User: What shape does this take?
Amino acid sequence: MVQERDNNEWIAALQADGPLREAALSDLRGMLLIGLKTALKSRSDFVDSLLDDFVQDSLVRILRSLDQFQNRSRFVTWATAIAIRVALTELRKRRWRDVSLETLVADTGFEPSAAETSPDRESQPIIEAMYRIIGSDLTEKQRTVLLAEIKGMAQEEIARQMGSSRNALYKLSHDARQRLKQGLEKAGFTAQEYAITIS
Amino acid sequence: MSLSRPELQKMLDVVRATQPIEIDCDVCLMQVGEFAELNLVGKPIPEGLKAIEQHLSICDECREEYEMLCVALRK
Assistant: This one.
């Protein structure tokens, strides 16, 4: 039977010693097991045998982050969000760990007008401008991150292969997107103009 | 191999949604619970959480995590 606790009681119990803490940990473990299983069950790469490890890793991360809880949601909601981050990060790592970032980027490149993409007449000018700006205004690192993200590669894996962190990567990606946006605006394309659907 | 049409579309969409000041994935994680709880009960998103909404529009991974959190909360 899970004990009802408000946010302050959760924090106090998890920061206490002895039976109070053990009971809170046991309750939280049970709630995360249910939450994660519900959230992940539709994924083809998830199997039940992974669940215990995900919950254990999540509890470590939650306990380490208690001082960052801002009391703006239910504590269990906040904890479940962390558990989902932990679990999906691991599943994404497994999916992408054998993919070389260098090869992915080299194989894709930023070459316009390939037959397989051949955008329609309306979007052709903006696509060409985008390729031009990516080639001339972005650094190699910015190009790599932007391309890998667009290809769907896991951020943790991009960061690992670049010797960086997920947050540092986000900054790099943000800088790349900003430069691209500024370049398109300088080339005369308004945000409204590139709110198009490529057919 | 070049970018596919959906990838080109995604590139344009994320560039269009880019803002000069954005939050990163860790900040999003700390606040996404509040955002999800408000959304699930249909309450308006306050100005202070607009940055979460913007981040979710450009970050595929955080958006995927948010959607799974909503699935867990609905149960």
Summary: Chain A has a mean pLDDT of 90. The radius of gyration of chain A is 22 Å. The CA atoms of residues 145 and 173 of chain A lie 6 Å apart.
